[in-house]
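thread: overnight batch results

M.L. [08:02]
morning all. the overnight job finished for the chain we discussed friday. pasting input first so we're all looking at the same thing
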Amino acid sequence: MISKIEENKIRDYLLDKKLPIDILLEVNDHFIIQIKTLEFEKDLSFDDAFKNVKENWRKDLTLSWAGGMDINDSNLLMRRISKNIVKDNIYFALKVTLFGMLFTILMSKFLPQNLFQYLICILVSAIFIYPLIIFIINFKKFNLTRKYDNYTLSLHQHNTALVLSLAVLPVNLIQQVLNHPENFNSFGNFKGFNLDFWNHAFPYLLLIVIFSLASLTIISQIKFLKQLEIVKPFLKYLKPS
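M.L. [08:03]
and the structure it wrote out:
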């Protein structure tokens, strides 16, 4: 059995490695299982087993600067998980954006202009309002990232307010739709990369950005809230800012 004192040693060691708390909890479980296995199979003391397990994880948990724009140190484990999260979220955003753009183009081609204006304004507003509602309803939960800003509770927390910080984009697009709906309806009926092309392409490019940012925000919010339920029992071991 692992005693409370020994559990504290493992936890403090992993906290020093600056792991996001949700990842730390998973690694902590692996440490305990591996230490117990070594104690049983090789008849090692806790300290010797702990030393062996730390050495096995040394490459994955050693903090270093990865280069690039992020000046904070991280480790190989965090980078691998972060890379997978980014890949999954971008894939989700691409699917949503592709569907949203196809839906918008079909509406612009087959609906009366007035009806299209109303529907696209509702769609763009909903894209922005939905993550805002999630944020407001769960404000206390999202605010925990500020309360414990010395730690990263989850890698999913970084994009939970992405589209909300760029509210000017949906406002700008709605103005485009209301003032120049013809730019949507006549998209594709011109030739060459001239001024006319950019006048018609701009609202679509803006819509792509909004769909992408909103999708990334929503999926990050959902995943963060899910991970937070796992992290909550561990918060008692953290020091608020």
